[in-house]
């Protein structure tokens, strides 16, 4: 037997018995790098001392599996048009509702009969007809914008769940045909009715008009859109909080300058006392100015008893309110009484 035939026979025997024949000399192996990766080394000249590396047996192989929830597996079977015809805001909430037993598995018109059959097989339930209250199975439509009528309001862009419409405010919009899922959500918000849904798949309906690759791409775009909207919402809230903090910081110094003003507005009695005090201050200043000019009051010499009683009552009210002037309050009245 030749050397080559002997080696081939030895390899076959080794695969059957798990032993290694002495006539077969494998390549030497060496460890390289700090991580200890085993790599094949150049053929070693020490054939008698080279140790063979046995092949890993299948009983030692470990397969890593990722556990997926029932809602995730249901979502994988949905067409991902995000059309909301099922009664839920997107395909993921609908899948979660089916998994929780809150929704039936025949409420997805874009999936059609084949979509129901897929869900029934996963759930171990019978195939049932489509619930037509949520819509009819149909050929997949494509949104088409009449660019001559479009006013650039951006409402259709905000409604599109997969960002399939390009445009800007007060500029012409257009639909990216390769990205449109035919969800119809852009039609209702258009104020000029310039969007038409045109069937583009002929007689093919449901999953026959839609591929798994297209569904996966639509799902990825929808997820990216949700992430973008959440980021924009957080940024808007941060700007609003910053503006509110700025207004509060500007209002604090003014509040410190007039600490009594809020109390007067809150307490009606305090406000009333403040008004009376201000009026009395004006009257006192006016009286001082007239006295300095030699034009004092001329009607205090002959005061009747009734008028004096009114003056005394007014002074008593001033004392109760804490507005009396200790130097001037009752002296003029007493002087007048003694004079009489």
Automatic annotation (TrEMBL):
Pfam families the record matches: Fer4_21, FeS
InterPro entries listed in its UniProt record: 4Fe-4S_dom, 4Fe4S_Fe-S-bd, 4Fe4S_Fe_S_CS, Elect_transpt_cplx_RnfB/RsxB, RnfB_subfamily
Single Gene Ontology MF annotation: metal ion binding
Keyword Iron-sulfur assigned: yes
Keywords tagged on the record: 4Fe-4S, Cell inner membrane, Cell membrane, Electron transport, Iron, Iron-sulfur, Membrane, Metal-binding, Repeat, Translocase, Transport
Biased composition (Basic and acidic residues): 1-16, 254-272
Residues in 4Fe-4S domain copies: 65-125
Composition bias, Low complexity: 237-253
Superkingdom as given in the UniProt entry: Bacteria
Domain 4Fe-4S ferredoxin-type stretches: 141-170, 171-200
Region (Disordered): 1-22, 232-340
NCBIfam families xrefs: PRK05113.1 (NF003475), PRK06991.1 (NF005415), rnfB (TIGR01944)
PANTHER family assigned to the protein according to its UniProt record, in alphabetical order: ION-TRANSLOCATING OXIDOREDUCTASE COMPLEX SUBUNIT B, OXIDOREDUCTASE
Protein name, UniProt field: Electron transport complex, RnfABCDGE type, B subunit
Organism: Caballeronia arvi
High-level lineage: Bacteria, Pseudomonadati, Pseudomonadota, Betaproteobacteria, Burkholderiales
């Amino acid at each position: 037997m030749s050397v080559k035939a002997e080696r081939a026979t030895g390899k076959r025997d080794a695969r059957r018995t798990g032993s290694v024949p002495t006539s077969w000399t494998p390549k030497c192996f060496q460890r390289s790098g700090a991580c200890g990766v085993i790599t094949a080394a150049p053929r070693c000249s020490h054939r008698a001392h080279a140790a063979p590396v046995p092949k890993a047996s299948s009983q030692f192989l470990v397969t890593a599996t990722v556990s997926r929830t029932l809602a995730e597996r249901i979502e994988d079977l949905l067409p991902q048009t995000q059309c909301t015809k099922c009664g839920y805001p997107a395909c993921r909430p609908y899948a979660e509702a089916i998994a929780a037993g809150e929704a039936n598995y025949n409420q997805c018109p874009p999936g059609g009969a084949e979509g129901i059959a897929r869900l029934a097989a996963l759930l171990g339930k019978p195939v049932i007809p489509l619930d037509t209250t949520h819509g009819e199975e149909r050929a997949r439509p494509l949104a088409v914008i009449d660019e001559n009528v479009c006013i650039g309001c951006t409402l259709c862009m905000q409604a599109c769940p997969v960002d399939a419409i390009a445009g800007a405010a007060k500029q012409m919009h257009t639909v990216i045909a390769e990205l449109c899922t035919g969800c119809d959500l852009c039609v209702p918000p258009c104020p000029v009715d310039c969007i038409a849904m045109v069937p583009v798949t002929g007689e093919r309906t449901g999953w026959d008009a839609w591929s798994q690759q297209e569904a996966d791409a639509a799902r990825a775009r929808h997820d990216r859109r949700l992430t973008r909207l959440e980021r924009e919402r957080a940024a808007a809230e941060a700007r609003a909080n910053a503006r509110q903090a700025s207004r509060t910081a500007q209002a604090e110094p003014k509040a410190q300058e007039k600490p009594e003003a809020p109390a007067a507005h809150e307490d009606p009695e305090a406000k009333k006392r403040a008004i009376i005090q201000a009026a009395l201050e004006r009257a006192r200043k006016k009286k001082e100015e007239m006295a300095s000019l030699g034009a004092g009051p001329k009607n205090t010499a002959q005061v009747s008893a009734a008028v004096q009683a009114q003056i005394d009552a007014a002074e008593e009210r001033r004392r109760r309110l804490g507005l009396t002037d200790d130097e001037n309050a009752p002296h003029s009245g007493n002087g007048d009484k003694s004079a009489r």
